[in-house]
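Hey team,

Filing this mostly as a record. A colleague (T.K.) asked me to run one chain through the structure pipeline before their review meeting, and I want the input and output archived in the tracker in case anyone asks later how it was produced. No errors, nothing strange. Just documentation.

Input sequence:
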Amino acid sequence: MNSTRRDWFVMQAAAALGPVINVRDHGAAGDGSRLDSTAIQHAIDAAARQGGGTVYVPAGRYRCGTLRLASHLTLWIEAGAVLRMSERDEDFEPPETLPYPPNADRATSRFRHALLYGEGLEHVTIRGEGRIDCGPKRSGGPKPISLKRCRDVGILGITSENASSYNISMLGCERVVIDGVTILNGYSDGIDPDCCRSVRIANCFVESVDDAIVLKASPALGEVAHTEHVTVTNCVLRTASIHLKCGTESRGDFRNITFSNCTLIGGMGGRHGNPGVALYTVDGGTLQGVAVSNITMQNVGVPLALRLGARGRGQPTPVPGRLEDIALSNIVAVGAKRPSPFCGIPEALIRNVTATSIRIQVSRTAAGPAALEDVPEKAAEYPDPTMFGELPASGMYFRHAVGITLRDIHLEGAEGDTRPALTADDVDELRLLALRVPSYRLHNVRRAEVLDFSGRAHLRITGKDTREVVLRPAGAGRPEEYLYRGSEVPTGEVACRP
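Output structure:
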């Protein structure tokens, strides 16, 4: 189909979304050299004056500074159309000065320094098969797409490449759909919903040096706000940092979050441990009701990382929040570099985590001794799964938690790694079923039950605070041959029962 005929079909489709305004009719050249932002802004303003419509960007290369979007607007970037960020900073709006301390970094809290910017809008859509090209890397942005306090947002089909700042940055937005978006060669985050509600992210490819998809609940609105009712599904993510993340900014709450059917690809680097899935709350917020399922990972640094801490950004006095009600299922990680930590702090326990059908293969051995007693707390530090140093487990490590259920867990360490595959330290209400591990250790656990205990795995039970551990053997073997019980464990607190 030639370009003229294709444009006709696209214009007909756009017309279904309201009156169509072609940016060429307002003087946009699309030749890659002249600055077209004034002409395109005139087209956007014309649509706004008539109550909304579609601003159509046909094939061409449009050199632009900041474009201010409008309500009831669709910006249709056609296949072959490129919005190319101007190389001149003066063509962009400067970052705003906020009337309150945002207690967040510049990229998280400032929104006006952007190519496509909207604030306080409703029913705004950016769609098409065209591209946003941010050009050479430069410090401090601008952001390709920056939306603040907007409702009924759609970002569909477009490609963003070479962004120096967050590619799709949203603060305080509601009812958002991001579908079929491609992000290439991002130097910063891919997609960042911050204090947003009712967000659907699907069918995206994100390639970034920093976090791929990261949910935040920062104080950047000048008030405590929450991120809730979010689904991320059917995405392929490749990053040197974190693939799927809640936090680190966690002054508000995270509630009702689903990550599903995603492929995660590491190997680009080891920023912040390069986790596959990271669930963090360290600034007083509650992280509750998160389901992670049907995830495959290849060569990530750390497959899973849960951290409840007390950094306290935005709090007058750091006070830990809560991390609870987490379901992990059908996860496969091959070629991981480090074990997965699930760590609370003594005064704030991770609660109610269920992990089912997890297979993790770790390819790296510990660089040095990993004594259980030497793992630091670091409650006030930025969360990072490498912050504890070498962990006393090769696959999964649990500390300061209550209500942990593990079922059908297969952990495989690197050849020559002598650490237990799984270690639980200071865990209450622990339930283990059908573990496929060479060895595991329970230290100071209470009200624990090991089902199908057998010689398939060596179990080490230690700690003077161990209480009420029940082993339920499988078959007619002699399970005591595979059990080590430390002399400090109180008499009668470990029992084998049918």
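Quick notes for T.K.: The longest strand covers residues 396-412. The domain at 18-239 is CATH 2.160.20.10 (Pectate Lyase C-like).
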